[in-house]
Each structure stands twice: as C-alpha cells, then as structure tokens.
Amino acid sequence: MRVGVTYNIKKQRTEDRGQKPEEGRPPDFFAEWDDEDTIEAIQAALSKRHDVVMIEANEDAYVKLRNKRPDIVFNIAEGLWGQGRESQIPAMLDMLRIPYTGSGPLTLAICLDKARAKEILSYYGIPTPRFSIYDLRITNLKTDNRQSSIANRKSLSFPLIVKPLYEGSSKGIRNNSVVNNEAELQNRVEWLIKEYKQPAIVEEFLDGREFTVAMIGNGSALMALPIVEINYSSLPAGVTPIYSYEAKWIWDTPDNPLEIFKCPADIDSRLKKDIETICINAFNTLDIKDWCRIDIRLDSHGKPYILELNPLPGILPDPKSNSCFPKAARAAGMDYDELINTVLDTACKRYGIQYGAKKNYNHL
C-alpha cells in the first residue's frame, strides 16, 4: 500500500544559533512541529510494511497530494497560520478524497480552540474547569460573550491559569501562568495577548494530581492505553506545578531528562475507571478519530476534569525523551513501530481498507 506522510519539520530557532530571536515571534513559535528524528522514525516504521511518500505540509502540499495520490495518509501536520491551521491538510485530503489518519477538519479546529471544545464538553456534562475568554479587542479585561454558561453564572475563583486560546505543546504557558490576584491576572493576560496575538483563555486552576491519557481506536474498539501521571515533584523546588514551557523545553533535556512521567499511574481502580470514562465520552462527543491524547487534572476532592484534548499528539521516538503517547504505548507492550502502524491500521479499518493482518491489542 502507498502511504503518504504529511508533516511540518521544526525550524531551528535563531536563538539556538546564538542570534537574537526573530522579531515578533515567541521562542516557542515552532514548538508544535516535529523534529527530523520523529519524521524519520515515522517513515521508517511505516516503510516496514508499506511504500511511503513524504509530503511536507507547505504551500505546495495540495499539488503534491494530487499528483502522488497515496492510498492513505498518515497525517501529523500541525500547520502554522490561523486558528484552523491543523485542519488545512485534512481539508485538502477530503477535497481529494484521500483517506487519512486522525480526526477531520472540524474536530481539529474545535480541539485547537480550547473554549469551543470546553463549551461542547460542558453542554454534554463532561467536567472541565470553568473559564472565561479575554479577547484581543477587549482592553479593560472584561470577558466577552465567548464563555461557557457555567462561567457566566458565577465569577471565577483564584488561583487561575492563563493560556493562549489557540495553541498546544505548552506554548504560552510559563511558570508564572498561574495567577493569584487581579493585578497578576491583568499583567499575564496583557503579556499573552501581545506575545501571541490571540485571545487568552483563563481557567480556574485545579490543585490536584495531573494525568494524560493516550487513546487509540474508534467506536466499541476505542481503548485507553496505560494512564500517565505527571510527577511535579521532579521539577525544581519552588516552581509552579504545571507542565509549562520551562518544564517541557528548558528543565527537561535529552542529556538531563526529568523523571516527570510515571506510567502506569499509581491510582486505584475507581479513579482509573472515572478518568477513562470521561476520556471516552469526550473522544466520542467531539467526534475524534483513531487517536488522541487527553490531559486530565483532579480538583481538591479528587474529581477528574478534562483540561485539553490533543488529536495530533506528540510522538517522540527516543525512549529517553519524555513523550507521553509513546511512553503509554510501551507500557501497553507496543514498541514505537507498532504504535505508528497501529494508528494506521485503525484508520484503515475505519475506511474499510484491507491490506493484510495486524497485531491485535484488544486485550489491553
């Protein structure tokens, strides 16, 4: 079978070359894109079973897809410009009637817009922290109309966490993103809007344990891989217990990795079931396809809430790197190549594409 891989390759930051950061761009501008090692590992995994065509998700992608016409595409393209950037390649593939792994354009756009995703979750009774939006057009920091009905009924309580509305990979989340009073809130929102040129989402900060759940499958075959807990005790003393830009990209390095993830998480069967249930409900409610990583945090009473959904999850191949989805897959007995091909198999089954036997993980 001819399998295309659509991807964005991470650019080397100017500050990594000893120069000043590019004007107008935050240091984590390309954080969502994949590095060369990840792209090569995906290509190698798929090449063991298929003919692979690599297609960079740039402005020439549509023509390349139209000319090469793979049987199916393994899509990891994040895009760059606009709040619907993750939807661009899937929309092209839909137009060309080429099957692909993962969710469609609408779901990807909704999940990238944290407020829209949380509004839908709230409507269906799936727990997510209360929030408000601070828009670029709002100068006095009054909330606009894009709030959940829950947030409208009651003002938010400190502490709060401030995030960019349309980002992933901890972009815009710094050690000082959790605020405890109005002055800190105003300063943080103003910085974020100026730096990222988009609205800020402000959520009530939950002070319980945090987990992330890797999901694979569709319908009755949807399964949660072993749950990963984020161990904030591994961070430097005195820092905020969040998976911030500093935690992900500065304090945690391949040469000196943090022991920040524990998988399987040390939780009882009841909490495990509660977490898996809300993840399955969220996955199906938002019409996610094939795979997703869902971030969960507990409140002070131990109740799980959904923070974010990542339908294009990070998949660093090096076991020494702290990458949650591959870590969960290894705990489930899958090596990296098996993980990549299982995602492809899942999409093929959804489309009714048959090309041979696959390993069965239904026992997990």
Essential attributes:
D-amino Acid Aminotransferase, Chain A, domain 1; 364 residues; Dna Ligase, domain 1; 4-stranded antiparallel beta sheet; 6-stranded antiparallel beta sheet
Shape: globular
Element order, helices and strands? Answer: EHEHEHHHEHEEHEEEEHEHEEHH
CATH architecture of the largest domain: 2-Layer Sandwich
Terminus-to-terminus distance: 28 Å
Tally of discrete structural domains: 3
Average per-residue pLDDT, rounded, comes to 86
Helix content: 25-40%
- How would a textbook summarize the main sheet? 6 strands, antiparallel
**How many whole angstroms does the radius of gyration measure?**
20 Å
- CATH top level of the largest domain is Alpha Beta
Number of DSSP helical runs: 11
Total count of strands: 13
Q: Helix/strand/pairing class, anyone?
A: alpha+beta
Oligomeric status:
single chain
Low-confidence parts: 13-21, 138-154, 357-364
Strand content: 15-25%
- Please name the fourth-level CATH homologous superfamily of the largest domain: ATP-grasp fold, B domain
Which fold name fills CATH's third level, the topology of the largest domain?
D-amino Acid Aminotransferase, Chain A, domain 1
